[in-house]
Amino acid sequence: MRMRHLGAWICLSLCAGCATYSPLPLGDGQGARDASQLSVSTAQMPLPALREHRFDPSHGLDVTDVAMVAVANNPDLKLLRDQLGIARAQAFAAGLLPDPQITLNQEFLDHAAPGYTTSYAYGISEDISSLLLRSLRKSAANSQAEQVNLDLLWAEWQTIAQARLLFNQVTSLRAQQHELAAEQNALAVVDGEVSKALQRGNLTYDGASAGLMAYADAGKRLADCTTQLHQAEHDLRVLLGFAPDAPLPLLGEPFEVAPTPGQVQAALDELPRRRPDLLALQAGYKAQEATLRGAIRAQFPALNFGLDRQTDNTGVRSRGINIGLTLPLFDRNRGNIAIEQATRQQLKDDYENRLLATRNDIRELLLDQDTLAQQRERQQQQATRLDQARDAAEHAWQHGLLDWPTYLSIRANALNADLDAIAARDQQSQQAIALETLLGSTDLQPSSVAAATP
């Protein structure tokens, strides 16, 4: 009777804390049809600049809106958030106390005999070594969860940078497409004049080749630009988690910052304490320190302690204790200790190499900063002058004051200058995005620029 009551109590205790199953149906993977369908919480944005921005896709998406949508809806970030949930569950599991072990035994007599009865034994034991290692195990798991959280934050920063780069690429290619389409339309008139001159015998094919090639080259360049634009728009839709046919109403200027030397130096000084990937490496190193201490502590004898109560076939009852002890004669956990020490050294070198490479990359970007700004200004001035020359040449050609080969040459120079100006703007914006990401700073603009920015 006592054994049955004990068994029933154990079953009720086990069922009281059982988890239950609930289904989770698979989605259809359609993607968002429009940015207005998405719920973007500014309070959960990883950067202050995004939290202060008012998200309103009804009038189009500027570079900050695109970055916010990428953080909220990027498919890869969703997977990383799932991994964070797993890491936190593992940290929770690492902090749980080990379950005690209960042993039950009952021996029945084959034949009843006077003075003899059924014997039974029951006991409970606990793994003491697991209890002693719990604090280190929990510390390592918490640090690993923090590392995953910081890796997620760094991935969000990288996604923001990628969204800004793709925004620039799409807007630049659209601007190039506009220039090339206008050039093709203008050259269509020249091509028609050249074709008429060939038909009338006023031109030979040798003399007309430049005019014919100009129009064909403009068409080829327009087709190549359109293909590149389709690829860039595809990449942006994938990054934003949009459906393949979702519109991309982009507007506004590319991302730009102009940090002062003092701001850059301040960001460099705070680099190990603010950049998520460096903080993640620090958390990983901290987790490895706890793991190494646990391996060192595990070299001591494993201990298992228990209590039992039993009776034999004559009805004599007894109680006692059980102690299990592993003798550290051969293994002593030396292999695991060596592995954890080597892993700690690897993490240390990885962190220092990442920090050194970051400082060198930032130095290179700073050296290019003034050069790119001056180059962009020169390209813009050159494009403005050649655009004026093209307008004047077009007027002169239409009134018969300029021959078409010279007119085509002026147009070609103006087109190349316009495309170079667009490329210079895009290159400077790429440099600004890389600089802000490497510095781990979100406030690199001088105070006068920041105050003038809406």
Write structural notes for this entry:
By secondary structure, the protein is α+β, with helices and mostly antiparallel strands. It is built from 12 helices and 4 strands. The chain has a 4-stranded antiparallel beta sheet with strand order 1-2-3-4. A hairpin with a 5-residue loop joins strand 3 and strand 4. Helix 5 (128-200) runs antiparallel to helix 9, helix 9 runs antiparallel to helix 10 and helix 10 (334-398) packs antiparallel against helix 11 (404-439). Residues 444-454 have low confidence and may be disordered.
Main sheet, how many strands, which sense, barrel? 4 strands, antiparallel
Fraction of residues in β-strands: 5-15%
Shape estimate: elongated
Q: Poorly predicted ranges (pLDDT <50, ≥5 residues)? A: 444-454
Distance from N terminus to C terminus (CA atoms, Å) equals 80 Å
Please provide the ordered H/E string of secondary-structure elements: HHHHEEHHHHHEEHHH
Helix content: 55-70%
Number of strands: 4
Mean pLDDT across all amino acids = 82
Structural class: alpha+beta
Task: Give the count of helical stretches.
Answer: 12
Strand order in the sheet with the most strands: 1-2-3-4
Rounded radius of gyration (Å): 36 Å
List the helices and strands and how they pair.
Layout: H1 2-16, H2 48-51, H3 63-73, H4 75-94, E1 101-107, E2 119-127, H5 128-200, H6 205-240, H7 261-269, H8 271-274, H9 276-297, E3 303-311, E4 317-325, H10 334-398, H11 404-439, H12 447-452
Antiparallel strand pairs: 1-2, 2-3, 3-4
Helix pairs in contact: 3-5, 4-5, 5-6, 5-9, 5-11, 9-10, 10-11
